[in-house]
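Example record

The entry below shows one chain as it appears in the dataset: sequence first, then structure tokens.
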Amino acid sequence: MTRLLRRILLVFVVFAKHGTGDKHGTLHCEPQNMQLSNVSEELQITWESHPSCLCVKNLTYELLVLVEHKQVHHEEVEVVGSSHRWSWRSFLPLECASHSVKIRSRCKNQTSLWTTETLPAQEPSAEIQVFPQDHVFEVGSKVIFCCIIPEGEMLSEMFLDNYDAPSNTSMLNNHTYALTVDLLSPTLNSDANVICKTHTDQNGACAIFGYRPSDSNLTCETRDFMSVECFWKVGDQIFNNPTNYWLLEQSCGQTNGTCSQKVEVDSSERNWTLIAHNVLGTIELTDEADLTKRVYMYAPQTVPVSLVYARNASLRWFWTVQQYNLLNLTCQINIADRKNKIQIEKNGIGLTSIVLNDLIPNWTYTAIVRCATVSDFWKWGDWSQPTSFDTKGDIPDALDVWMHQEGNQTLIIWKLLEDHQSHGHIIDYEVIWTDSEEKEQFNKRSIVHPSHSIALNLRSFKKYIVKVTARNGHGSSIPSHIIIPSHFQDTPERNITQIRGIEGGFNLSWAPSPNASCGYILDWCPVSGDHSLDWLKVPPSKTSATIYSKNLKDGVRYRLSIFICTVDAPVLLETREGYVREKRIPNDLFKNLRWEQHPSDVKISWDKIILKDQSAFIEGYGLNCTDESGIIRVTTDDLEASSLTVNLNIGSYAFSVYALTSLGECGLTTLDVTLNSHSDNLVSAFLISLFTAFTLLLVIIVVCYRHWACIKQRVYPSIAEPVLSGNWLPSQAVASYCSSEEFTMAVSELHCEFPSLENNNTCQNDKGFTYTTTLAQTQPLKKHMPCEVVLPQASSIICSKQNVFPNPTYSFIFLGNNEETELETKFQNFEEEVLNNYQPQDFIENQTDEDSMSCVSAYIVLPQSP
């Protein structure tokens, strides 16, 4: 104790003798053990106060920073204690230039002497050096890079690669250069290279740009009441320098915006703090909340569905967190099948089950569940794992039935049931139809699936009721019926109006009808080609509908009919025709294009265009006539036209016929024609007619020549020889031919007989031949009969020019036996008349040889009796 007092007294004596300053105002409190160093790119200096200055009040230190012996910073700091530290970040990399720190103490107006420490710059080497290396810079600041080149080298170029920003280069000393860059881009958050070049070499350094932590919106909650989980919006991150986080002063590491810590949650509000730090700075986020009101529930654990029926099922689950069983919960159950998704909600304390109703039979479902607290609702919990189940089968749904008239048949057609309507595999369909007046008598037909139509031959004067049911393994559906009216087949055709499609379908609207007790039916099918029928049923409250179908095709004309659905039978209201989208009609639309020339006009004609070839509405027809002088156009809006006429001069023309549509001129068909004068046409017609007649005559001659034998036999058959009796001619019944045209013959008696003849001639008719006999100075035979000519005996036959007896000609008809008696009587009368009127000529006496005419040794063979 005595020693301590002595030492204190000695210190006061010394201070009393020497004091802390002198008469010149110099303070003797110089810093002790001063050190200057580079710590993380910052200039840091440490020192200690002189023991003699510990009792000095209001002691401060004044610091000066010099870069390359130029003052760049001045600052005064107050200190406490004996050891002190001060740091300062230079605008220039510490390796690029020497940095000196001068420090002295100050007390009121007295100051100590300056004490200086210097941190030298990096010395030049054999290679180019660029500083700083891999340093992080804050976007929006001004940055200086330096390049130290070897001794004797000259700087060629220094720049920041892949970054366009204001910059300039300056010289710090003989071998050091500085590049100043303004990082003004607000979106810059990456890295770049600083390139330094000399005439012989180049080098560089990587610079990283980023922001201070900018995270926000911290929110905390609990899931199991035994931990806290916080999440926030993550701000910009620095390349290769992620932000570090601490929650409740416990490290979360490098996270993506969530952090959880174990802590017991009670029903009180408290602050939940998050700290975010990166190399450029640090921020702190806080959330104040009672986490018992922020419960984010885990997913329920579902169990396989055990109670499943055709149209309902029971779904169960359980909780892994026991506290959930005490909470008032609301749960969502999503039921999904192959087409639809249904969501159901239910409330309850510790809810763990639900009954699902109105399910589709024979259908597969998938169910998931999530829950949340009812009071202080925070958010829905996680969805459970899906659980799947199949409902049992049932009878099919009722069929959608419609009818269509095809000629004399009524087509009953129904839509195939989809999978969610069939409730099992469809086996067949049963169709029953009956007369409405005789319902006890009915007809029944079974149609095997997948056929879905039947054509019925119904009497048009009766009304029929048709019922259709579908059958699967569980039974038959409820019957669907439709009434066929007695006048359905005789319904008059309504006026057909045009309709144009919109966006791949048809928009239909119609006037409401008070008779539409069950709505309206719209049906449509192609006008030509594939008659696939489809229909849509509309409730009574609607008078418009949009028809869309994957079967509708562009360029096909459809007929759309609107029917009124009544309690009795459907009634046709309107009929329309149109295209979903009209398409250009291809060229060569007009078939059999032909032309006719009249005295002053030319008529171009074509066959009627069928609907199958019309991919757009035809609004008229046009004709272009082109020659060397130009084009003549003729058009018509008559849709039934099949020809166009134009007045033209003689010459060659190119005719082009086309259809007028809303898409322009379509179906172009061409024809080249040369028009001649009318006289040329007459000559051509005469020559053609003459050639035709000559050709026909030649054909007739050839045919007659090839069949002359048969034609001669039919037209001019050979005459059989007559049968002569008596002594008038020799037994051979011959007569001499004379060279003269006349000969004299004495006839004494002519007898006729009626022999039965046999016809052996191939070209004769069935009634026999006909022969005609003419005698001189007698009447010709009035009747024809088979006869025998009996000539009298004669001693000689004299041929003379003066006394001529004409050679009789005989014509005989061979008759049947039933006519012989009558003919015989008539022939006797004829014979008597001939004998009574016959006057023989006198023979000329004293004929000389010169006056007589010799006979030719030829004979006329008269027909003989068979």
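Notes for this example: Residues 717-838+852-866 form one domain. Residues 4-24, 726-823, 838-866 have pLDDT under 50 and may be disordered.
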